[in-house]
Protein backbone atom coordinates (compact mmCIF):
# COMPACT_ATOMS: atom_id res chain seq x y z
CA UNK A 1 0.00 0.00 0.00
CA UNK A 2 1.52 3.29 -1.11
CA UNK A 3 1.04 6.56 0.75
CA UNK A 4 0.52 10.14 -0.36
CA UNK A 5 0.99 13.46 1.42
CA UNK A 6 -2.22 14.71 3.00
CA UNK A 7 -1.98 18.31 1.88
CA UNK A 8 -0.05 20.62 4.19
CA UNK A 9 -0.76 18.65 7.36
CA UNK A 10 2.58 16.83 7.45
CA UNK A 11 0.73 13.51 7.53
CA UNK A 12 0.86 10.75 4.95
CA UNK A 13 -2.11 8.47 4.30
CA UNK A 14 -2.68 5.35 2.25
CA UNK A 15 -3.90 6.10 -1.27
CA UNK A 16 -6.83 3.73 -0.74
CA UNK A 17 -8.84 4.61 2.33
CA UNK A 18 -12.10 3.41 3.84
CA UNK A 19 -15.43 5.19 3.50
CA UNK A 20 -17.54 4.33 6.55
CA UNK A 21 -20.99 5.41 5.33
CA UNK A 22 -22.05 1.84 4.52
CA UNK A 23 -21.30 0.52 8.02
CA UNK A 24 -23.36 3.34 9.49
CA UNK A 25 -26.60 3.45 7.53
CA UNK A 26 -28.37 4.00 4.19
CA UNK A 27 -26.87 1.01 2.36
CA UNK A 28 -29.31 -1.64 3.55
CA UNK A 29 -28.75 -3.78 6.61
CA UNK A 30 -25.12 -4.36 7.58
CA UNK A 31 -24.53 -6.75 10.49
CA UNK A 32 -22.28 -5.45 13.23
CA UNK A 33 -19.99 -8.45 12.79
CA UNK A 34 -19.62 -7.68 9.06
CA UNK A 35 -18.95 -4.01 9.80
CA UNK A 36 -16.24 -4.88 12.30
CA UNK A 37 -14.72 -7.40 9.89
CA UNK A 38 -14.63 -4.74 7.17
CA UNK A 39 -12.70 -2.40 9.44
CA UNK A 40 -10.27 -5.08 10.58
CA UNK A 41 -9.58 -6.27 7.02
CA UNK A 42 -9.10 -2.68 5.92
CA UNK A 43 -6.51 -1.99 8.59
CA UNK A 44 -4.81 -5.36 8.06
CA UNK A 45 -4.32 -4.38 4.41
CA UNK A 46 -2.34 -1.28 5.38
CA UNK A 47 -5.08 1.33 5.00
CA UNK A 48 -4.33 4.36 7.19
CA UNK A 49 -7.22 6.70 6.33
CA UNK A 50 -10.78 6.22 7.61
CA UNK A 51 -13.58 8.60 6.66
CA UNK A 52 -16.82 8.79 8.62
CA UNK A 53 -19.48 11.30 9.69
CA UNK A 54 -21.54 12.04 12.77
CA UNK A 55 -24.78 11.24 10.91
CA UNK A 56 -23.75 7.82 9.59
CA UNK A 57 -26.13 5.71 11.62
CA UNK A 58 -26.53 8.55 14.13
CA UNK A 59 -23.00 7.96 15.42
CA UNK A 60 -22.85 4.19 14.82
CA UNK A 61 -20.07 4.46 12.24
CA UNK A 62 -17.89 6.61 14.52
CA UNK A 63 -18.50 4.28 17.46
CA UNK A 64 -17.58 1.15 15.48
CA UNK A 65 -14.32 2.78 14.39
CA UNK A 66 -13.49 3.69 17.98
CA UNK A 67 -14.21 0.13 19.11
CA UNK A 68 -11.94 -1.45 16.51
CA UNK A 69 -9.09 0.98 17.08
CA UNK A 70 -9.28 0.42 20.83
CA UNK A 71 -9.17 -3.36 20.32
CA UNK A 72 -6.20 -3.18 17.99
CA UNK A 73 -4.07 -0.61 19.78
CA UNK A 74 -0.80 0.49 18.20
CA UNK A 75 -0.46 3.34 15.71
CA UNK A 76 -3.75 5.03 14.94
CA UNK A 77 -4.82 5.68 11.37
CA UNK A 78 -5.87 9.16 10.27
CA UNK A 79 -9.58 9.41 11.07
CA UNK A 80 -11.68 12.05 9.35
CA UNK A 81 -15.25 12.83 10.33
CA UNK A 82 -17.84 15.37 9.21
CA UNK A 83 -20.22 17.83 10.79
CA UNK A 84 -23.27 19.88 9.88
CA UNK A 85 -25.87 17.41 8.64
CA UNK A 86 -27.35 17.07 12.11
CA UNK A 87 -28.86 20.51 11.70
CA UNK A 88 -32.67 20.35 11.41
CA UNK A 89 -32.45 22.69 8.43
CA UNK A 90 -29.50 23.42 6.16
CA UNK A 91 -29.00 27.14 6.70
CA UNK A 92 -25.75 29.08 7.06
CA UNK A 93 -26.94 30.46 10.40
CA UNK A 94 -26.82 26.93 11.79
CA UNK A 95 -23.06 26.73 11.34
CA UNK A 96 -22.25 28.81 14.40
CA UNK A 97 -19.25 28.21 16.64
CA UNK A 98 -21.52 27.08 19.47
CA UNK A 99 -23.47 24.60 17.34
CA UNK A 100 -20.45 23.13 15.56
CA UNK A 101 -18.62 22.85 18.87
CA UNK A 102 -21.52 20.81 20.26
CA UNK A 103 -21.51 18.50 17.25
CA UNK A 104 -17.74 18.07 17.52
CA UNK A 105 -17.98 17.27 21.23
CA UNK A 106 -20.31 14.42 20.30
CA UNK A 107 -17.87 13.11 17.67
CA UNK A 108 -15.01 13.33 20.17
CA UNK A 109 -17.03 11.14 22.52
CA UNK A 110 -18.05 8.69 19.78
CA UNK A 111 -14.48 8.32 18.53
CA UNK A 112 -13.04 8.29 22.08
CA UNK A 113 -10.35 10.88 21.39
CA UNK A 114 -9.38 14.29 22.76
CA UNK A 115 -8.73 15.86 19.34
CA UNK A 116 -10.17 15.03 15.92
CA UNK A 117 -7.64 14.56 13.11
CA UNK A 118 -9.88 16.20 10.51
CA UNK A 119 -13.38 17.67 10.58
CA UNK A 120 -15.11 18.35 7.28
CA UNK A 121 -18.17 20.50 6.75
CA UNK A 122 -20.65 17.95 5.43
CA UNK A 123 -21.99 19.24 2.11
CA UNK A 124 -23.29 22.53 3.50
CA UNK A 125 -25.36 25.00 1.44
CA UNK A 126 -23.46 26.73 -1.36
CA UNK A 127 -23.97 30.14 0.24
CA UNK A 128 -21.88 29.08 3.24
CA UNK A 129 -18.69 29.40 1.20
CA UNK A 130 -19.34 33.14 1.01
CA UNK A 131 -19.38 33.52 4.80
CA UNK A 132 -15.81 33.83 6.15
CA UNK A 133 -17.08 33.80 9.73
CA UNK A 134 -17.86 30.08 9.43
CA UNK A 135 -14.25 29.33 8.59
CA UNK A 136 -13.19 31.68 11.37
CA UNK A 137 -15.16 29.50 13.77
CA UNK A 138 -13.29 26.45 12.50
CA UNK A 139 -10.03 28.29 13.14
CA UNK A 140 -11.20 28.84 16.72
CA UNK A 141 -11.89 25.13 17.13
CA UNK A 142 -8.34 24.39 15.98
CA UNK A 143 -7.01 26.91 18.51
CA UNK A 144 -9.09 25.26 21.23
CA UNK A 145 -7.52 21.90 20.42
CA UNK A 146 -10.76 20.14 19.53
CA UNK A 147 -9.66 19.59 15.92
CA UNK A 148 -6.23 19.46 14.29
CA UNK A 149 -7.34 20.23 10.76
CA UNK A 150 -10.48 21.05 8.83
CA UNK A 151 -11.74 20.67 5.30
CA UNK A 152 -14.97 20.53 3.34
CA UNK A 153 -17.03 17.83 1.68
CA UNK A 154 -18.72 19.37 -1.34
CA UNK A 155 -21.29 18.50 -3.96
CA UNK A 156 -20.12 20.87 -6.69
CA UNK A 157 -16.81 21.84 -8.22
CA UNK A 158 -17.72 25.50 -7.80
CA UNK A 159 -18.03 25.00 -4.04
CA UNK A 160 -14.59 23.38 -3.93
CA UNK A 161 -13.02 26.25 -5.87
CA UNK A 162 -14.48 28.75 -3.42
CA UNK A 163 -13.47 26.72 -0.35
CA UNK A 164 -9.85 26.55 -1.46
CA UNK A 165 -9.66 30.34 -1.12
CA UNK A 166 -9.75 29.94 2.67
CA UNK A 167 -6.20 29.38 3.96
CA UNK A 168 -7.29 27.03 6.74
CA UNK A 169 -8.95 24.53 4.40
CA UNK A 170 -6.67 21.48 4.30
CA UNK A 171 -8.79 19.12 2.23
CA UNK A 172 -11.59 18.86 -0.30
CA UNK A 173 -13.78 15.78 -0.44
CA UNK A 174 -15.61 15.44 -3.75
CA UNK A 175 -17.22 12.79 -5.91
CA UNK A 176 -14.68 11.62 -8.48
CA UNK A 177 -14.83 8.49 -10.56
CA UNK A 178 -15.01 7.30 -14.18
CA UNK A 179 -18.55 8.68 -14.33
CA UNK A 180 -17.75 12.02 -12.64
CA UNK A 181 -14.63 13.43 -14.26
CA UNK A 182 -15.16 17.18 -14.05
CA UNK A 183 -12.97 17.75 -10.94
CA UNK A 184 -9.88 16.85 -12.97
CA UNK A 185 -10.39 19.76 -15.36
CA UNK A 186 -9.61 22.72 -13.09
CA UNK A 187 -9.91 21.83 -9.44
CA UNK A 188 -7.06 19.34 -9.31
CA UNK A 189 -4.45 21.73 -10.63
CA UNK A 190 -5.48 24.39 -8.11
CA UNK A 191 -5.47 21.88 -5.26
CA UNK A 192 -1.93 20.85 -6.14
CA UNK A 193 -0.84 24.48 -6.34
CA UNK A 194 -2.35 25.20 -2.89
CA UNK A 195 -1.24 21.84 -1.42
CA UNK A 196 -4.80 20.92 -0.54
CA UNK A 197 -5.62 17.22 -0.16
CA UNK A 198 -8.25 15.68 -2.43
CA UNK A 199 -10.45 12.90 -1.01
CA UNK A 200 -12.25 11.06 -3.81
CA UNK A 201 -15.60 9.79 -2.55
CA UNK A 202 -18.23 7.62 -4.25
CA UNK A 203 -15.34 6.10 -6.25
CA UNK A 204 -17.44 3.23 -7.59
CA UNK A 205 -20.54 5.32 -8.38
CA UNK A 206 -22.53 3.59 -5.61
CA UNK A 207 -21.47 0.21 -6.93
CA UNK A 208 -22.34 0.81 -10.58
CA UNK A 209 -18.64 0.56 -11.45
CA UNK A 210 -18.38 -2.83 -9.79
CA UNK A 211 -20.08 -4.19 -12.91
CA UNK A 212 -22.30 -6.42 -10.76
CA UNK A 213 -25.66 -4.68 -11.22
CA UNK A 214 -28.39 -5.37 -13.75
CA UNK A 215 -31.64 -3.70 -14.69
CA UNK A 216 -33.53 -6.02 -12.33
CA UNK A 217 -31.15 -5.73 -9.36
CA UNK A 218 -33.15 -5.17 -6.17
CA UNK A 219 -32.04 -2.88 -3.35
CA UNK A 220 -33.40 -2.84 0.19
CA UNK A 221 -35.82 -0.09 1.16
CA UNK A 222 -33.19 1.25 3.59
CA UNK A 223 -30.60 1.52 0.79
CA UNK A 224 -30.20 5.00 -0.73
CA UNK A 225 -29.84 3.32 -4.13
CA UNK A 226 -33.54 2.57 -3.74
CA UNK A 227 -34.92 5.53 -1.76
CA UNK A 228 -32.82 8.36 -3.26
CA UNK A 229 -32.96 7.53 -6.98
CA UNK A 230 -34.44 10.95 -7.71
CA UNK A 231 -32.90 12.91 -4.84
CA UNK A 232 -35.80 12.38 -2.45
CA UNK A 233 -33.62 12.35 0.68
CA UNK A 234 -30.43 14.24 -0.27
CA UNK A 235 -28.50 15.34 -3.33
CA UNK A 236 -29.16 12.87 -6.13
CA UNK A 237 -25.50 13.11 -7.12
CA UNK A 238 -24.66 10.91 -4.11
CA UNK A 239 -26.62 8.01 -5.64
CA UNK A 240 -25.03 6.39 -8.70
CA UNK A 241 -23.11 9.68 -9.03
CA UNK A 242 -26.29 11.26 -10.40
CA UNK A 243 -26.20 9.10 -13.52
CA UNK A 244 -29.60 7.70 -14.55
CA UNK A 245 -29.41 4.02 -13.62
CA UNK A 246 -30.15 2.58 -17.06
CA UNK A 247 -27.66 4.95 -18.73
CA UNK A 248 -25.04 3.92 -16.20
CA UNK A 249 -25.62 0.22 -16.83
CA UNK A 250 -25.15 0.75 -20.57
CA UNK A 251 -21.93 2.70 -20.05
CA UNK A 252 -20.61 -0.02 -17.73
CA UNK A 253 -20.86 -2.47 -20.62
CA UNK A 254 -18.56 -0.20 -22.62
CA UNK A 255 -16.09 -0.11 -19.73
CA UNK A 256 -16.12 -3.88 -19.15
CA UNK A 257 -13.91 -4.87 -22.14
CA UNK A 258 -11.18 -2.50 -20.92
CA UNK A 259 -10.73 -4.41 -17.67
CA UNK A 260 -7.78 -6.62 -18.48
CA UNK A 261 -6.22 -9.63 -16.83
CA UNK A 262 -7.83 -11.31 -13.86
CA UNK A 263 -8.75 -8.14 -11.98
CA UNK A 264 -12.26 -6.92 -11.20
CA UNK A 265 -14.02 -3.87 -12.58
CA UNK A 266 -14.18 -2.37 -9.10
CA UNK A 267 -10.39 -2.59 -8.66
CA UNK A 268 -9.92 -1.23 -12.19
CA UNK A 269 -12.19 1.74 -11.41
CA UNK A 270 -10.27 2.49 -8.21
CA UNK A 271 -6.95 2.27 -10.03
CA UNK A 272 -8.26 4.78 -12.58
CA UNK A 273 -8.70 7.30 -9.76
CA UNK A 274 -5.14 6.75 -8.56
CA UNK A 275 -3.83 7.70 -12.00
CA UNK A 276 -4.45 11.32 -10.98
CA UNK A 277 -1.59 12.70 -8.88
CA UNK A 278 -3.81 15.37 -7.32
CA UNK A 279 -5.90 12.70 -5.61
CA UNK A 280 -4.64 12.03 -2.10
CA UNK A 281 -6.93 9.13 -1.21
CA UNK A 282 -9.92 7.30 -2.65
CA UNK A 283 -12.46 6.11 -0.07
CA UNK A 284 -14.52 3.14 -1.26
CA UNK A 285 -16.97 1.72 1.24
CA UNK A 286 -17.32 -1.91 2.22
CA UNK A 287 -20.12 -3.91 3.82
CA UNK A 288 -17.92 -6.86 4.81
CA UNK A 289 -14.34 -8.03 5.09
CA UNK A 290 -14.09 -9.45 1.57
CA UNK A 291 -15.12 -6.16 -0.03
CA UNK A 292 -12.70 -4.24 2.17
CA UNK A 293 -9.81 -6.53 1.26
CA UNK A 294 -10.61 -6.32 -2.45
CA UNK A 295 -10.74 -2.51 -2.36
CA UNK A 296 -7.31 -2.31 -0.76
CA UNK A 297 -5.86 -4.64 -3.40
CA UNK A 298 -6.61 -2.04 -6.09
CA UNK A 299 -3.54 -0.09 -4.99
CA UNK A 300 -1.29 -2.92 -6.18
CA UNK A 301 -2.53 -2.87 -9.78
CA UNK A 302 -0.15 -1.54 -12.42
CA UNK A 303 -0.82 1.83 -14.04
CA UNK A 304 -3.60 1.77 -16.61
CA UNK A 305 -2.52 2.07 -20.26
CA UNK A 306 -2.99 5.49 -21.81
CA UNK A 307 -5.18 3.94 -24.49
CA UNK A 308 -7.56 2.73 -21.80
CA UNK A 309 -7.54 6.15 -20.13
CA UNK A 310 -8.43 7.78 -23.44
CA UNK A 311 -11.25 5.31 -24.07
CA UNK A 312 -12.67 5.89 -20.60
CA UNK A 313 -12.69 9.61 -21.27
CA UNK A 314 -14.50 8.99 -24.54
CA UNK A 315 -17.13 6.85 -22.80
CA UNK A 316 -17.64 9.63 -20.28
CA UNK A 317 -17.90 12.33 -22.95
CA UNK A 318 -20.34 10.38 -25.09
CA UNK A 319 -22.56 8.58 -22.59
CA UNK A 320 -22.30 10.27 -19.18
CA UNK A 321 -21.23 13.89 -19.50
CA UNK A 322 -24.61 15.25 -20.69
CA UNK A 323 -26.23 14.08 -17.45
CA UNK A 324 -23.71 15.17 -14.83
CA UNK A 325 -20.98 17.49 -16.05
CA UNK A 326 -22.57 20.93 -15.72
CA UNK A 327 -24.77 19.96 -12.78
CA UNK A 328 -21.94 19.17 -10.38
Concise synopsis of the structure shown:
The protein has 328 residues and is of the alpha/beta class. It is built from eleven helices and ten strands.
Low-confidence stretches: none
- CA radius of gyration is 18 Å
Largest sheet: 8 strands, parallel
Q: What shape does the CA trace take?
A: globular
Terminal Cα span? 31 Å
Helical fraction equals: 25-40%
Alpha plus pi helix count: 11
Could you walk me through the main structural features you see in this protein, from its secondary elements to its overall organization?
With 328 residues, this protein is of the alpha/beta class. Helices cover 37% and strands 14% of the residues. The chain has helices at residues 32-44, 60-72, 97-111, 132-143, 157-163, 187-194, 224-227, 245-255, 265-274, 289-297, 306-324; strands at residues 3-5, 12-14, 18-19, 49-51, 78-83, 116-122, 147-153, 169-175, 197-201, 281-282. The protein has an 8-stranded parallel beta sheet with strand order 3-4-5-6-7-8-9-10, covered by helices on one side. Strand 5, helix 3 and strand 6 (116-122) form a beta-alpha-beta unit. Helix 1 packs parallel to helix 10 (289-297) and helix 8 packs antiparallel against helix 11. The model has no long low-confidence stretch (mean pLDDT 97).
Please describe the topology of this protein.
Elements: E1 3-5, E2 12-14, E3 18-19, H1 32-44, E4 49-51, H2 60-72, E5 78-83, H3 97-111, E6 116-122, H4 132-143, E7 147-153, H5 157-163, E8 169-175, H6 187-194, E9 197-201, H7 224-227, H8 245-255, H9 265-274, E10 281-282, H10 289-297, H11 306-324
Parallel strand pairs: 3-4, 4-5, 5-6, 6-7, 7-8, 8-9, 9-10
Antiparallel strand pairs: 1-2
Helix pairs in contact: 1-10, 8-11
Amino acid sequence: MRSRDFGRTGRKVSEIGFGAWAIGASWGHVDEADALAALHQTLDAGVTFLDTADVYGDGRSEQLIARVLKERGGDRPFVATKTGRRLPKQEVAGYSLETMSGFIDRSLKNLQVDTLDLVQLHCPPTDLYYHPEVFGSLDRLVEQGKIRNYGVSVERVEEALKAIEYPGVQSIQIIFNIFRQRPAERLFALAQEKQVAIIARVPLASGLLSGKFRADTKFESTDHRQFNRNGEAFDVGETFSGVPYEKGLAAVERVRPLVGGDTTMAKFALRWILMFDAVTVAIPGARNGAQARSNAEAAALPALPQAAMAELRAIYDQDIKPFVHQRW
